């Protein structure tokens, strides 16, 4: 690329940055951002209760049990000084 193209690209970037800064100074822009971040009624009414199938509650529960199992395997390997598979009699 020659210097003229580089200058043109940097000018375009500067203009985009300036327009973004001006947009952020506009009070209507800030109010619109605040409205976008408000929670609707559905989001507030989420309850932690078991549902059959794929749900956030099931995913969180399965993730916690996986972390407990992984930590248990690490502790077994540290205290027994051998691999978990050998300790369990698999190998």
H-E string: HHHHH
Poorly predicted runs are none
Quote the beta fraction. under 5%
The number of strands is: 0
Structural domains: how many: 2
Helical element count? 5
Residue share in helices?
over 70%
Shape: elongated
| Amino- and carboxy-terminal Cα gap | 61 Å
CA radius of gyration is 28 Å
Largest sheet, in brief, is: none
Q: Based on the structure, what is the oligomeric state of the protein chains?
A: single chain
Question: What structural category characterises the helix and strand content?
Answer: mainly alpha
Mean pLDDT: 77
Provide an overview of this structure.
With 91 residues, the protein is mostly helical. It folds into 2 domains: 1-32; 56-91, no CATH class. The protein is 74% helix and 0% strand. It contains 5 helices and no strands. The protein has helices at 3-25, 27-37, 41-44, 56-80, 84-87. The protein is elongated and about 65 Å long. The relative contact order is 0.04. The model has no long low-confidence stretch (mean pLDDT 77).
List the SSEs and their pairings.
Elements: H1 3-25, H2 27-37, H3 41-44, H4 56-80, H5 84-87
Brief overview:
The chain has 2 domains: 1-32; 56-91, no CATH class.
Annotation keywords:
about 90 residues; mainly alpha; 5 helices; about 0% strand
